[in-house]
Amino acid sequence: MYDRGLSVLEQYGLEAKSTYRGRGALICDTQAGLVQIREYNGSPRKLGYQAKLLEIVSTRNQISVDSLLPNQEGAYVSTDKDNIPYVVKRWYEGRECDTQSMKDIKRSVTALASLHKTMKMPVQTHYVKEPLLMEYERKNRELRKIRKFVCQKRRKNDFELRYLDSIACYLWHAEEAQRRLNSSEYEDLRCRSLEAGDVCHGEYNQHNVLMLAQNTAVINFDRWHYDVQMEDLYQFMRKILEKHNWDLEMGRQMLLAYHEEKPLNVQELENLRIRFAYPEKYWKLANYYYSHSKAWISEKNLEKLEKLIAQHDNWMNFVENISV
């Protein structure tokens, strides 16, 4: 089990000198340097575009990325004797971004801004993300549906009672964010982003940013898509700020680090503010509750809900005052 997938290296003309486990993958030291072997169950077509994207970034940017390696037949997917598909990528010896280190955080944001300047490809319609307005409409319908479901339950657990106590407040925030987005210049911003072929990483978080001795590496581009690139910046900042109780000064430093590398325009800043104003974590907790077993609710989920509610005022202060 430890060396699962190792045999595919033969198809690349590589031999492993040593191996160790990474996050759901096998890291191998070969004559060509470090490579990662990972199972792949996605679309070979999208993987081909991902390889092109990473090639563009590699040739135009100082940020290191986990480029896909073709096998000796020129394919990016290789199967072992059990017919399990794998991909092989370049890999780096580094540590993940430390969410308690402002130096690491700013370095990660600067790397993202640098990536965004070069992550552009002719648009393939199939990989364009749904408009944010449609996403908010869908999520708000789900929040109302969950509220109705919980209200109709005769016996309610602690999570459900706390959810009902808070839903009016957070649903208002969710609907207000939808209204703000609808009256903003979002459609124009999105159209210009698609015309430029702007690509998002899709999962830009501390786990996918590696601190190297000389520079920064960004990995795991499997969820790339075309969209307004503020999505990446928002996702990274939100996860960091939730860990730091929506520290306003920390948020400003992150925005400034991005802005100094890739200046933010008025439309992008407004879009970012609207994204921060949407109660994403609240929706996630509600959605997780509704889509999983409701007979037993983990104490951890109740703790997450309580923590989120306790952060409400700091979150609102951040939303109302954040600027570059």
Automatic annotation (TrEMBL):
Gene3D superfamilies for the chain: 3.90.1200.10
InterPro entries: CotS-like, Kinase-like_dom_sf, Spore_coat_CotS
PANTHER family according to UniProt: SPORE COAT PROTEIN I (PTHR39179:SF1)
Name this protein carries in UniProt: CotS family spore coat protein
